[in-house]
Design goal:
Layout: H1 6-23, H2 25-46, H3 50-70, H4 78-83, H5 85-90, H6 96-125, H7 133-157, H8 164-172, H9 177-191, H10 197-226
């Protein structure tokens, strides 16, 4: 592996992670199924009024998507940690911070992206106007990217800890509040004939803030877990 250059090694690692995700695609499907089931329960609780459902749809979709992504975070490093692959990856020529960001990217592809692609089905079922779908999808893309970056930090901090599956949501959920608020406000702004641009830009800024934080915090936590 030492003879492989950085960019080539990064591509190999992404291909490896995607291949493993495909073999365990049942876990990715669980995220989508959870998202669809969680969102579909709300009409039973608040009633079938299409006007009310359309007004609440952005919040319902966002909360369902948030939990669907958060529930899959605990396994980001767990399998590699248990079978010893993480130690080998830490010794690879690729910097550990790059491995962390690649893990975040693969997690987003296998969870956040799939949830985003499933969102229009739920949105239309909730009578959300089709004109709002582009902003909804844009906010979900930015928001789930933020969640995946937060996920690698939390997964690294809890790696090897007892009941890590419970600790990850406890660490991540309070930090997802800005993402949740901005994602919902972006859709609501367009519904009120206002520009969603400020909210989307703030989400993008939050994502850019999280990237260096993850590149610093997660590798330090991984080294501590491997010592």
């Amino acid at each position: 592996m030492s003879a492989v250059g950085g960019p080539a090694l990064a591509r190999l690692l992404v291909a490896r992670e995607l291949s493993l995700a495909w073999r365990q695609r049942g876990q990715a499907l669980l995220s989508i199924i959870f998202f669809l089931l969680a969102a579909s329960l709300f009409p039973f609780a608040i009633g079938p009024d299409p006007v009310l459902l359309a007004r609440l749809a952005p919040g319902i979709l966002w909360v369902s998507a948030l939990f669907a992504v958060v529930l899959s975070m605990e396994r980001i490093f767990q399998a590699d940690y248990e079978d010893g692959s993480l130690e080998q990856l830490a010794l690879a020529p690729l910097p550990l911070w790059a491995l962390v960001l690649l893990k975040a990217l693969v997690h987003w592809i296998t969870t956040g992206l799939l949830v985003t692609l499933a969102a229009p089905l739920v949105a239309l079922a909730f009578s959300l106007p089709a004109s709002l779908l582009p902003v909804l999808l844009a906010s979900l893309v930015l928001g789930t990217l933020c969640l995946s970056v937060l996920g690698v930090i939390a997964a690294a901090l809890t790696l090897g800890a007892r009941r890590g599956a419970l600790l990850v949501p406890l660490l991540v959920l309070p930090l997802t509040v800005p993402v949740l608020i901005l994602g919902v406000l972006a859709v609501q702004a367009l519904a009120l004939s206002l520009s969603p641009r400020p909210h989307l830009l703030l989400m993008g800024a939050f994502f850019l803030f999280l990237l260096p934080l993850a590149a610093w915090a997660a590798p330090a936590a991984l080294r501590q877990a491997l010592d």
